[in-house]
Design brief:
This is PepSY domain-containing protein. The chain is globular and about 35 Å long. The N terminus and C terminus are likely disordered. By secondary structure, the protein is an alpha+beta fold. A hairpin with a 5-residue loop joins strand 1 and strand 2. The chain has one domain.
């Protein structure tokens, strides 16, 4: 299982999002406002080396989130929290 987590982390480290100039990106403040309207509480925001918006936080039902977004079209690229929940549990 640790190998799966390591592979998952390595794959995410290579996640590429925006190749466009930053002038084409949705501004961080606008992105945060859009997430707030969707009921997302952001506890941590960062721009990854692959030019993704990465957020940590909670959805309106209180579920933990860790999602990578393309900053141009603001579509989810990777949902880390859901992917980890789908991993088989150790007996």
């Amino acid at each position: 299982m640790l190998a799966l987590l390591a592979l998952s982390s390595a794959a995410l480290a290579d996640t590429d999002c925006a190749r466009q100039d930053r002038s084409a990106w949705m501004p961080e403040s606008q992105f945060r406002e859009q997430m707030k309207r969707q009921g997302v509480q952001i506890t941590k925001f960062r721009i990854t080396p692959g030019n993704c918006y990465e957020i940590y936080g909670f959805d309106r039902e209180g579920r933990k989130l860790e999602i990578y977004y393309d900053p141009v079209d603001v579509q989810p690229v990777e949902d880390v929290a859901s992917a980890q929940l789908a991993l088989p549990r150790h007996p």
